[in-house]
Request: fold
Amino acid sequence: MLILSLAGIVLSGYLLANHFGLGTGVCNISPTIDCDKVNASPYSSILGIPVALIGLLGFVAMFVVGYMGRFYPDNWIGERHGLLLILLAGVGAAFGVYLTYIELFVILAICPFCAAAFGVNLAILGLAVVWLR
Reply:
């Protein structure tokens, strides 16, 4: 869980840098597989906040909750880490479904790093559900 959260932090960090023009061109494979096209679209920010920053903060929150559950299970967060992870990852997954829809049917381009971050989020959600059982 912690390793997946760190992977999500790295992916979201790259996407945030890409949003601000750093590291562009890395995954511009074709007109339909293009991180820059997705990250430059009007859908890459919500109320002026980059979507990549929202993802980064979400993965940081999942890391903190997972860390607290693993190393400090007797505090409030640690006792509820399973439910909190399901909540955080569930919100992230729902947001990821929306963003993937936007990529496929509005922007008409896929960002492989965005898809990877979505996959990491789904993996965290799946592990949290199994862990809670």
About this structure: The domain at 2-132 is CATH 1.20.1440.130 (de novo design (two linked rop proteins)). The first strand starts at residue 45 and ends at 46. The chain is about 70% helix and 5% strand. Residues 5 and 63 are 5 Å apart (CA to CA).
